[in-house]
Amino acid sequence: MSTPSSRPSTPAPAPARGMQARVDGWLLRMGTVGQLLAMLTRGGRWWMLPLVGVLMLAAVVLIALQSVQYVAPFIYLVF
Amino acid sequence: MSTWILGISALYHDAAAVLLCDGVVVAAAQEERFTRVKHDASLPVRAVSWCLHQASIERGDLDWLVFYEKPLRKFERIVATDVATFPRSWRSFPRHMHSWLGDKLWIRGRLVDTFGVPTERILFCEHHLSHAASAFLASPHRQAAVLVADGVGEWATTSLWRGSDQAPFLEPVAEVRWPHSLGLLYSAITAHLGFAVNEGEYKVMGMAAYGEPRMREQIDRIAHLEADGSFSLDMDYFCWHWHPTRSATPKLAALLGPQRLPGTPFAPRARPGDASAAVIAESQRHADLAASVQSWLEDAMLHLAGHAARTIGTDTLCLAGGVALNAVANHRLAAEGPFAHLWIQPAAGDAGGALGAALWAWHAVLGNPRNDLPFRVDLGPQQDRGHTVEILDDLGFRYEVLEEAATDRAVEDLVAGHVLGWVQGRAEWGPRALGHRSILADPRGADTAERVNRRIKLREPFRPFAPSVTAAGAAGFKLAPAAAAPARHMLVAAPVQAALAAQIPAVIHVDGSARVQVVDPDAHPAYHALLERFGQATGLPILLDTSFNLKGEPIVGSVVDALATFARSGLDVLYLDGIRVQRPPAYIDTQPKASS
Amino acid sequence: MGVVKQIWVALTGTLAWRIPRRARHLLWAFSRAELGSALDMLAAVEATERRDLRKKYFRHAMDEWRHSVIFREQAQSMGPTDAELAGRDEAGMLVENGIVGGRTLFERLGERDFLAFVYVAEGDAVEHFEVYHRLRLPNAGTLAAMDGILKDEVFHVTYSRAELDRMAQGGQGKEARRAILRTRWNRLKERWMRLSRDIGAVTSAVWLTALYLLVIWPFRLIARLDGGGWQVPPVEPRDRLLAARSEA
């Protein structure tokens, strides 16, 4: 049995996320989007709002595809 | 009940983690030291894991986690820039959006998932404020002008702050915004001179000493010092704001001459070797370009400092941001600038943002007063003796446990002309090796620098090595009084008296300067003792001190890293906290490769 | 190596090595892969509880470092890449070195599966090099360099196999075989994921470029970047804790 290194092993990541965790994740993201829109409005870059709206739709697609990476090549080939 | 604050920098350059307990730094480390990937920017999971282990706490004990920038402001800047530079940004936009929409925009969720801190306990500190805090709040000063200069944060590239003794402690005064950036200007010239960005800037600084600012007029055409104490750039010459990989347009090459290809021999007039006349002329042109941009940068820093002094009216300047690592510019600031005191964050780059964010949270957000504890740099991991011995036995290295006798033995080795690996105590915070993870050699030999370079560091031959010296031996280094504090962390390059320079050629640059560390005996007692003993033996308490790593690698972290570096280099002997380790065993190929 | 795999390696190798740009890319990829392996092995030296294996892992790490330098020098002899000309640091492009989510390969796999990984990965490398050797790819110089590397890789296969055999003799034969199968399956999965990511990168680039061209252009008329000189910084809200919680 070896002596412990001064360097600890890195803890394993949290177990796979259940539905509640996924919902929490999306809620956090929505919070972020809300802050982004509020910031743009406050800061006078209101013209970016529609553009950011379109980008957020693209983000939804990107994130959704990332979560189904095993079948993604088939989806990409279709779309 | 203690308050634990974890500061984090990540995702762009130099990820790091810093842990505070009631406002005191208990652990700080860059992720690269654990992953062994230089400038590793990924979330500092391993650095955080070590910080918690060092403090004997769990993730659940953390009270606050502070991220070193405001991601949404950064996203705003990126989108606004891609729009403003349409259609030239057509290559950048898809890359930016893929990276941000898929990952970086959702950093809060990643921090929650990765570190287990509840979302309401996660704070975000503006990037330049993180830098400013890392300088001012870590310094011993209660009033100061604070200048931050880097590539870019959210929008600011250079910012000026008023540091005071009352909350919020740092008040923004003025800023220069993207895309006008001192850091990116210097990086563009770095790339033009054939070096890697965020790594090669030191090389440009070293190259500059071989040249004269003959191209200063051209630099003045692309970069202007404004009457209001600021600066601006002619963006027609640069494209960092719309090209995904390049920094400069063809206009820059038309003005400054063709780009230097990576790996091209550098043989200026001061060190021609057996190069042809054409190579010497071209090398001299490169050196003059380096000297010209260096000269402009120094004048810009003085210009900004002058404005800071007029606007804020204190006698102290605190500096942070990557540009603050320019030791030559720092010397001019100290020697010619309007401030009596200079304090520079040793980890002035993005890693320091983790420290600044944590300090800002403790003082400015939570309303705690400043303390009087001096800032230490020995904040990283330390070797465990039992584990070290076990590793040495298992790997078959021969060694002697010398304890206190190691100092005298190391002096014998140094005087005999050996080059040592030196691992002592906790690892340094910041990019400079300050006697904790160092390669040491006797600076008196005429061929020492060439030997260290050829057998170990494999750096470009024109780059100088740096000295460490005790305060008693520092008289020959012409340090301005204002440089006293930064010199403790090797952040100032000062001229050296000719008589002394002649005795220590290995650490003197071609222009007669040296980036010296004046070793504080309280901060680095073992290293100071070594210098003193060396001084007793030779009359000069000065050593060549370069970082303990090979080309392209981070400074060594664990004992295994140190042994692996030892085995792959031409080091003669290794000291690990009082253990003297001999040359690696025969089963390991230890031939260093020729420099490229 | 199965016949199908041999043919595949021969075909793709012939295509890749014949194109100088592709050949240089391959050499850099090999260099990065070897460097990643070196870091994996070094982490294993630190983390293993098998003190008798430390020396083998350490020697393996030294070998991989040497291989990385050999491939890098071969690549550099073919001229600078676009990335080098743009000043991008090679070390900064080593994204994955077996460290995923902060955990090293050894931490993720444990000793047995790590040895299985070494055995399978090094075995694949040996087989690839043997195919290249038979086909005299890419050229005499690189082949000579690969010969030296091949000897080391054979040692890596031998010692890892010996450890797995020792486990089998110790009554863990089934587990050792399963570890090898698991490793082969995971490597296939990783290749699929890489393919998926590569396709995804191309597809998202296409769609985002289309978005850029169709949606961005009207906003160009309104968007402006700041000129140089001092600007007034944004005013910070009074409630510092509330402001600090915001990502904006």
What is this entry, summarized?
The complex is a heterotrimer of chains A (79), B (596) and C (248). Chain A is mainly alpha-helical.
Task: Give a quick set of tags describing it.
heterotrimer, A: 79 residues, mainly alpha, 3 helices, 0% strand, extended, B: 596 residues, alpha/beta, eight-stranded mixed β-sheet, five-stranded mixed β-sheet, 20 helices, 37% helix, globular
Description:
The complex is a heterotrimer of chains A (79), B (596) and C (248). Chain A has helices at 19-42, 48-66, 72-78. Chain A is an all-alpha fold and 79 residues long. The mean pLDDT of chain A is 77. In chain B, helix 6 (127-136) packs across helix 13 (350-365) and helix 8 crosses helix 11. Chain B is of the alpha/beta class and 596 residues long. An eight-stranded mixed beta sheet of chain B has the order 13-22-21-14-15-20-16-19, with helices on both faces. Helices cover 37% and strands 17% of the residues of chain B. Chain C has seven helices and no strands. Chain C has helices at 3-18, 20-47, 54-76, 82-85, 105-134, 140-216, 240-245. Helix content of chain C is 74%, strand content 0%. Chain C starts with a helix and ends with a helix. Chains in contact: A-B, A-C, B-C. At the B-C interface, helix 2, helix 3, helix 4, helix 5 and strand 5 of B face helix 2, helix 3, helix 4, helix 6 and helix 7 of C.
Topology:
The complex is a heterotrimer of chains A (79), B (596) and C (248).
Chain A lengths: L18 H24 L5 H19 L5 H7 L1
Helix pairs in contact in A: 1-2
Chain B lengths: L3 E6 L6 E6 L2 E7 L1 H4 L9 H11 L8 E4 L3 H14 L7 H11 L4 H9 L6 E3 L2 H10 L7 E6 L6 E8 L6 E8 L4 H11 L8 H8 L7 H7 E3 L5 E3 L16 H7 L20 H36 L3 E5 L6 H10 L4 E4 L5 H16 L19 H11 L3 E3 L3 H11 L4 E4 L13 E5 L6 H10 L8 E5 L13 H4 L5 E3 L2 H6 L9 E3 L1 E3 L5 H14 L3 E6 L11 H9 L5 E4 L2 E3 L15
Parallel strand pairs in B: 1-4, 4-5, 6-11, 11-12, 14-21, 16-19
Antiparallel strand pairs in B: 1-2, 2-3, 6-7, 7-8, 9-10, 13-22, 14-15, 15-20, 16-20, 17-18, 21-22
Helix pairs in contact in B: 3-4, 6-13, 7-11, 8-11, 9-11, 11-12, 15-19
Chain C lengths: L2 H16 L1 H28 L6 H23 L5 H4 L19 H30 L5 H77 L23 H6 L3
